[in-house]
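Researcher: We're teaching a course module on how sequence relates to structure. For the next exercise, students receive a sequence and then see the predicted structure as tokens, so they can try to spot secondary structure elements on their own. Here is the exercise chain.
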Amino acid sequence: MRKPTPQDLKELNLLKHYRIIRKWACKANGLNDADLELLIYLDSLEHFTKQDFKTGQYSFSWDNRRWNKLIKKDWIVVWRHRNRTTQKYNIYKTSFKFKHVLSRIYRIMLGEEDLPDIKRKKSYTDKVMAFAIANVNNDKTR
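Model: And here is the predicted structure for the students to work with:
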């Protein structure tokens, strides 16, 4: 397989609607932007330790409850438990739930799937987001 060039990636227009898709994914799944992007980083590692998590979160806003929140809400799961003799620490991975969300984000970015409409349009932000989602769904060159 040939390594993609910057021109190949530009022609795919992957980042064209990234902001709207990210905002939708965060709102639909109860995440904030930093949590979503950190989970994308951790998913690229496949298996990681808590130290990898700490290293990855340096470029995001500080939230000392993020680790516990992501584990409690099943975004991160234990892949291998420690046994206090040979395995000194747990090894984690992103959950099936997150992998499903991430694959849906990729399908939307590639134009294989449309963004779902916002049902309630009470606030100004919801109305603006609904308009932006309609523009993304009507764009056939994504």
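Model: If you want an answer key for the exercise: The chain has a mean pLDDT of 91. The chain has one domain: 6-138.
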